[in-house]
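@here heads up, posting the sequence + SMILES for the pyridoxal-5'-phosphate run so it's all in one place. Ping me if the SMILES looks off, I pulled it from an old spreadsheet.
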Amino acid sequence: MSKVYNFSAGPAVLPHEVLLEAQGEMLDWHGSGMSVMEMSHRGKEFMEIIHQAEQDLRSLMNIPSNYRVLFLQGGASMQFSMVPLNLLGDRASVDVVNTGHWSKLAIKEARRYAGVNVVASSEDRNFTYVPASETWQRDPQAAYLHFTSNETIGGVQFSTFPEPEGEVPLVCDMSSDFLSREIDVSRFGLIYAGAQKNIGPSGLTLVIVREDLLDRAQPQIPTMMSYRVHADADSMYNTPATYPIYIAGLVFKWLKAQGGVRAMEARNEEKAGLLYHAIEQSGGFYHCPVEIAFRSRMNVVFRLRDESLEEAFVAGARAAGLVQLKGHRAVGGMRASIYNAMPLEGVKALVSYMLEFARQHG
Ligand SMILES: *Cc1c(COP(=O)(O)O)cnc(C)c1O
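bot reply: prediction finished. Complex structure tokens:
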């Protein structure tokens, strides 16, 4: 069997070393005689696994002690409901920035519970940029300000983060660029991310929430949707996604061994730089619709000048061991997702393929 380079947007590539380690421990975790999949979530072995995962994440992201880390399920999509249900408090409305597909879904869900003030939108130019934060129409009475740091489908990423204003906490959907660059957690009220992009397998959702925001939930909130309930139970109110938590823990350990988030950030810049450079240098054979300042370092979106060549491009790539390059069905074109676990060699292989394809068909 030969391994391919997998450019899927999610579930996505995992570090090869992590998969090997999980394979080695599959039947017998650390002499317990059990697979992690078979363990009680309340047993001492699994307690050690989840505790270590949290400690490693805290050190990787420098998470201040007044923040809780929650290991939840339901995906980032569940957070689209949990965020308003938990954080609206006595306020009437929330502020949101609309930068594309995932922002729109978050907005749609928030509208079920709250007034939604769209402070800025990039829909006027087909979601190819992030509106400058000085132009946002923010409401000082909003319960929070929600934005999507990286639009996974559009390939648009915030290059800088908005400043918190007054008492309005920043809430960020970081599903597709979590742990990809250094951030200052203390500037956020809440950060959430589905695991299957840059953390681990699907089935796990991470929430990092400032403690003082845990008591603003609507009184009728379902128990399983309450951050307070999950925080008080240390993410063990019910059975958590034990195996994904274990793999996420291995990924955190791997990240530390790679030099942490700063080292990943440098590597991610290099990888994205190679791809965008190849697109720019193709004389228009390939092009990226996203404005330069907001081009994602995680999801590189590009099109072929001659769209009738797309099928041949994807087929040839697959034959070369480069898979999952087709763009999301909502936008078409191509998309190369190059999360932390995508090695530099994978990006170099893609760049050579792209150059060769352009030479043959240009
Ligand atoms: C993938 C993704 C989602 C949805 O995640 P699920 O875990 O499938 O619910 C939400 N937001 C962003 C930015 C994403 O990339």
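MO: Residues 10, 75-77, 102, 148, 152, 173, 175-176, 194, 197 surround pyridoxal-5'-phosphate (CB under 6 Å).
MO: One more: The two ends are 33 Å apart (CA to CA).
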